[in-house]
Structures are given as C-alpha cells and as structure tokens.
Amino acid sequence: MSQIGLTLLHSNERIQVRRRIFRQLIESLLYERIVTGPAIAYGAESEYELHGKTDSGEEVAYRFKASRKKSFGRIRLSEEPVVRCTAGRAAEADSLPRFLLEIAPAIGTTETLLSVFIDEIQQTLLKDTMAVQKLLELQQHKPADYDDWESYVQAGHPYHPCYKSRIGFTLEDNLAYGPEFKPELKLAWVAVHQEAASFSIARMLDITSYMQHELGADYAAFQATIEAAGKNPSEYVLLPVHPWQWERFAATAFFEQMETQEIIYLGYGSDSYVPQQSIRTLSNRADKSKAYVKLPLSITNTSSGRILARHTLLNAARISDWLGEMVASDAFLRDELRLIMLKEVLGVSYQHQKLPNLLEQKVYGALGAIWRESLHPYLEPGEEALPFGALSYLQADGTPVIDGWIQKHGMERWVKKLLSVSVVPLIHLLYAHGTALESHAQNMMIVLERGLPTRIALKDFHDGIRYSPAVPNPLGYPDIMYPPSNHQRVNRNSFIAKEEVKEVKDFLLDAFMFINLTELAFFLEQHYGLPEEAWWQMTAEIIVGYQEKFPELQHRFELFDLFASEIEVEQLTKRRLYVGPNDCVHSVSNPLYAFHPKHRTLVGE
C-alpha cells in the first residue's frame, strides 16, 4: 500500500466516511428493493435488522435505526453506527466488504458484479477519507468566488453509496486530480486532422478566432509545431486532453494515429486549470472569463463511465443554440426570471467510429472536448453564485453556510425565495417548451444578492436534457445525433428524445426533486426544524401559483402532471449490481401528490 493509503488506515475520518457509506448503502439496498428487508415505517425512527450468514455459516444480523420519510418515501438511517450481531456478540459493523458478502444471497447478483461493486465501495471509502481530511483545511477559508466553491463542495452524491469510487484513479491520482485538493493543471494538446474529427459549433462562432482567444500565445506556438511536422495547420483542429487521460491512456491508445500524423502531439498549454466538483470539467485559473472545458476521463464514478461519447459532443452546440433561442424568444425566461444558460459553444470529437469495432471500443469517447461558457461574465455587480449543493454545507464550527442569510432575511422568506427562483424556471421550461433538464445539484448554480436567492444558472446540456417529439414546440427540436448501437453497452441510460411524455416529466422530478430538493429538505428539517410537509407544501404552492399565472398552458399541466401520485426514479445502486436489457427504475411516491390542487388538502384550508 502507498504512503497515502497507510495514513488512512486508522484515521478518525475513515471511520466517519465508513459510517456514511454504510448508511447510504443500506438505504439504497432497501429503498430500491434489492434486498427483501424490513418494512420501514413512516415517522419516528425504529430499530431494524438485515440478516445473513458468515463465511462459516453462522447467522448474522446487522442492526440499525431508520425511518421512512415523506419525501418520495426515502429511507433514512440514523446517525448511529450500524451494529453487527453474531454468536451473542454485538459490535459496530466495521467492514463494508464483509457486510456485502454476508448478505450476498439476499442480493442475488453474480460474484463478478459483486466483486466490482465491493471494489467501488472500498475505493469510495479511501478516496472520500482523503477528501474529508482535506476539508478540515478548506473550511478554514471561505471560498472567494464560484470557482472556489466548486472545490469546496466535495461531499459527492448524497444517495449513491459509490459516490467517490473514481475507478481508474490510484490514490496518488486522486490527490493529483481530485477537485477536493484544488490542483492546478496544465492541459495536454493535440492536433487532429479534420478528416478524423467531428464538430459541433455554435451559430456565429468562428472556430479559428475562438481558439486564438482561448489559447492566447499558445495558438501560434501550436501552429508552428504542426508546420514543423511538415503539415498544414489549416487541415487540423486543436484539441485539449486532460493530463491524466493523456499520460495514462491517450498517449498509448492513439500511438498509431500519431505515427501516421492523423494526430500530432503539441505539448502542454500555458494556462492553469482547476477541476470542478464533476472532476472532468475544468475552470480556467488564468482567466475566469474563458470557457470551462469538459474532457473525457477513462474512469468510472457513481454508476457511469466518465468518457464523452461522440454523439453527445456533436449535440453540444446544437442543443445549446436551441436552448439559447428558447430563452431569447421567451420574455418570461429572459426578462423576469433572468435565467442563465451556460451554453456549450463548441464540441470536438475524434471520429473513432471509422475504426474496426474491436479497436473502436477501446477508444470509444476517450478523445474529445466541450467548451462551455463561463458563469463569471453573466454575473452582475452585487451578485455572487455558488453551486446548489453548497446550500447544505456546514462550516468548520458546524454552522450551516446559509445560516447568516437565513438570520438576515428570515427562514420562511429565504426558503420561499429559494424555491421560487429554482422551481419556476424549470417547470416553465417543462410546461411551455416541453423540455426537462437534469437539474441535480452539480448542474445548478444559485445566484444571490446580499444573501437572498434571485435567479439560477443551468449547465450540462449535451446529454442532460429530455424531450418528446410528440409534444409540439414552436421552435421545433434540434437535429441531434442519436447514439450508435454499441453505445448502449457503455451507458444504456443516455438518450435525449423520449417516446413517452411521462418519462420527460419524471426525468425532471428525479434529478431536481428526488435528490436535489429532497436533500435540502432533510437538511433544513435537521438544522432549522422545517418539517418536510411544509417544504413540499411551499413547493406545491409555487407550482400552483405558476399555473394560475399561465392558464393558457392548462393542457400542458395535465400532460406533465407534477402532482402524480407516483413517479419513476433510477435505481442507482441496482445499476451496479445487475446487468440486463432494461433500465433500472422503480415507482416511488410523490410528496407533491398530497398537495394536488384538486385535493384541496393544503395545510390551513
């Protein structure tokens, strides 16, 4: 084991992280019905057990306290440690692999898949322990701006138990490239012959001028390198590569292409970048007005490979142009809500589909880039922005980050304002334009003035959007590139156009409400005593208020019924434990259903 690993073995932070993973793991196993466990009751916490057998055949029970919440019927374990009971002995459960092996018959997966899952769990334990140790240092310094917040917000997915597995990263890689450690990175650059490259370019964008601006003095230097190789620079497109991807994968995977000069290695750029919380998106440290760059990494994290599939790169600018036109033509979004859409203005991909299938699968989605607009030029004087996930963060003294703002403006006013500025733009996009965005906490930014939420910014559109062509749209729909047949083996849940209208609505509710708003509801209940029911009542009232403002959209309110009794959400843990032809989704209760305007059951009526 490396020196880094040795320092994690007996740390208090490791125990803290292990307890968190145990909670999220058991919650998801029960909630997704992967194991047939106890029927968790709504309301107060009660004690429950999961049963299995040791490797020697002895009966074993894992005991914990849990309750079922009003928010989508989510299961929540208490902060108390899980206890392992066997042969008359009871002690804190201290081994995640042993737990999974002992209840394996109830899970019913293959040894191969269980082994992979155990590795993801163990990697999450080690890598998040490193992050928690770093957090103690970070918490001594308040983030100066949005980019600093991206490094500060490092908790990872609040539901998925493999929230920081980063399979492919060693512990040294994690330290060198993980956003928690605020590394400053230089990007490797290559030139790809235009016949081997595919583009997605925003309207009115001149790619030469754009790259000259982004690269500065490096642009001329790279052109000179191409000329020195005996090639014409006008026949090549410049492409950045994440330093880990270059050193650990691309330099060898594309060796033959470099030999034929289909790809020319140019060296490292001058600008420094820092990774955002999503790891593969980087902020320009030298000039904050320059684009964020999203680059593929051949690693696995929270259910998905972190490559960038070619068809998504080719959809990037097309979808952003469409969304930009949507906002520009809609006075409500443009003038009243002042919605910020961080458009993806350029996508470039290596055309790996021209390779034989065996070779293509090795480099599928491994070489490409998306340039996304920076948030900074959109902010007006007096505005500050932070990732939505930062709203549920604690400072070093245990005080919530939002506490000063709540004390200043009052909890009810602050919470209602937060819900209004975040809910209304998203449901307007759904109702008026038939479009659902994957608005989880990483894809949303909250903009505040003097601590009061005023508007939101949204990002990540190349595959984080859903619509149904069956629903008319005055702008039509973008001419998108669909996934190739072999893409399903890489990520079977990535597709934009849906046949079923219900799937569009559920996509919004899953990303935005099932995880994002629910976690904030839990946080406000814990730290400020705000009941879940009050949170969802306020959300429902905002939706109803919107519907009263736009009665002409009544048919859309019925088509996209946000008050349906049940919705379908992804089974994120089940996806790691089973392989099959179908998507892993299940129906769960919708907390908005209790406040359906037709029911007349709003509190106080």
Q: How would you characterize the overall build of this protein?
A:
The structure is a single chain. With 605 residues, this protein is α+β, with helices and mostly antiparallel strands. It has three domains: 3-111, TATA-Binding Protein; 171-372, no CATH class; 384-595, Transferase(Phosphotransferase), domain 1 (Orthogonal Bundle), CATH 1.10.510.40. 39% of the residues lie in helices and 19% in strands. The strands form seven sheets. It has a six-stranded antiparallel sheet with strand order 7-16-17-12-11-10. Strands 1, 2, 3, 4 and 5 form a five-stranded antiparallel sheet that branches. It has a four-stranded mixed sheet with strand order 15-21-20-18. Strand 13 and strand 14 form a beta hairpin. The longest helix has 28 residues, at 111-138. It is globular and about 75 Å long. It starts with a helix and ends in a 16-residue tail after the last strand.
Q: Based on helices, strands and strand pairing, what is the structural class?
A: alpha+beta
Strand content: 15-25%
Total domain count: 3
As residue ranges, the low-confidence spans are 490-494, 601-605
Largest sheet: 6 strands, antiparallel
Helical proportion, percent range: 25-40%
End-to-end Cα distance:
63 Å
| Extended strand count | 24
Mean pLDDT: 92
CATH architecture grouping of the largest domain: Orthogonal Bundle
Rg, rounded, reads 24 Å
Global geometry? globular
Pfam families: FhuF, IucA_IucC
GO molecular function, one term: acid-amino acid ligase activity
Family: Belongs to the IucA/IucC family.
Protein name: Siderophore biosynthesis protein
